[in-house]
Amino acid sequence: MSGRTVTITEVARHAGVAVSTVSYVLSGKRTISAGTRRRVLDSIDALGYHPHAGARALASKRANVIALVLPLRAGMHVPVLMRFASAVVTAARRYDHDVLLLTADEGTDGIRRVAASALVDAFVLMDVELDDNRVPLLRELAEPSVLIGFPAEPAGLTCVDLDFAAAGGQCVAHLAERGHSRIALLGAPAVVYERGTGFARRTREGFVAAVAAHRVAGVALPCEETFDEVYATLARLLRDQPDLSGLVVHNEAAVGHVLSALRQLGRRVPADVAVVAICPDDVAERASPALTSVLIPAEEVGREAVRLLMEKLDGRTVPDATLLAPHLALRAST
Questions:
Q1: Parallel, antiparallel, or unpaired: how do β-strands 292-295 and 145-148 relate?
Q2: Fold: same for 65-161+298-324 and 164-295
Q3: Which of 28, 174, 300, 314 is the most buried if burial means most Cβ atoms within 10 Å?
Q4: What is the pTM (predicted TM-score) of this model?
Q5: Which CA distances in Å does 246 have to 36, 179, 188, 203, 206?
Q6: Domain 164-295 in CATH 3.90.226.10
Q7: What's the rounded Cα separation, in Å, for the pair 141 and 144?
Q8: Which homologous superfamily does the CATH classification assign to the domain defined by 65-161+298-324?
Q9: 10 Å Cβ neighbour count for 286?
Q10: Which residue(s) pair with 189 in the sheet?
Q11: Cβ neighbours for 188, distance < 8 A, ≥ 6 positions apart
Q12: What is the pLDDT of residue 158?
């Protein structure tokens, strides 16, 4: 019956029941025998009937909405955040769910308010800090949640993210294998480290551990987002370490500034300084020269977060931790 809207009357006729029976199955207002309920649901599937959203919600006792807590605050690069948000929204629609956006500045009060309102069935949280004050609340809520990121104590939570420690280590290994003996990490803005944001801290920890493992000299510095600040950081770094020959950049907003500043400082990429970035592929590919990079898989992480959440809503057991392995793409900058 493609090409037109299937009616509830047609569903009832197909299932051999009254229209009111179909309505009761959808609304849950009356108890219907398991056999009849199954017959009605089979007819809905067979005919491609799309009940009104309110009826679906009543039938499932759900709002068919998930809340996404998004970190729109200092030091967070909005274009990358929007990739995660878009992935969550797109994935949720595949499960017939809408997304309610909360900003991280609302903190625990915002989560508690929305949970109490019965507006949403579950939560996806981003910008997870190592000592995140939302974690105790998440453990108390009846609504399930998935975190994009890991707190220091993730027990009892469901978390998914890129393995940022491995990503930092992979960048070091790539440079060390090419003979670079003195390298630096230009990381997130200082405010991100000060908040204890997990992904930034873990990248730095992976970088430091790999520097020791490969027996190269390395330094990890925060990196701000304006050209003047990036230039000043690089000028100091190259003055203090004139034999520096490798850079790892984990700050999407600063990638272009780093390359421009190196040119102004008389350093050629990759002849004088090799550069590896942790960033989305299109950021790496648009750079000049194109950057060897570890992909931040926003789309994959967002899809996986929603999939895990839907499994939890259906009462299924899911893994506590899902870490996506980093993949390094070789380009002109190394």
A1: unpaired
A2: yes
A3: 174
A4: 0.79
A5: 68, 10, 17, 16, 16
A6: no
A7: 7
A8: Response regulator (3.40.50.2300)
A9: 12
A10: none
A11: 75, 197, 200, 203, 222, 223, 250, 251
A12: 97
Q: Which residues pair with 292 in a beta bridge?
A: 276
Measured CA distances, 256 to 170, 226, 266, 273, 285 (Å) = 22, 10, 16, 15, 11
- What sign results for the dihedral spanned by CA atoms 54, 58, 60, 61? positive
The reply to whether omega before 270 is within 30° of 0 (cis) is yes
C-beta separation of 157 from 144 below 8 A: no
Total residues belonging to the chain = 334
Would you state the torsion angle of the CA atoms of residues 308, 277, 283, 251, taken in this order, to the nearest 10 degrees?
A: 80
Residue extents of the structural domains in the chain: 8-60, 65-161+298-324, 164-295
Superfamily of domain 8-60: lambda repressor-like DNA-binding domains (1.10.260.40)
pLDDT means over runs of 10, the chain (334 residues) = 70 89 71 84 84 53 85 65 91 92 79 86 92 91 94 94 97 98 96 91 97 98 96 97 97 95 97 97 95 95 96 92 97 98
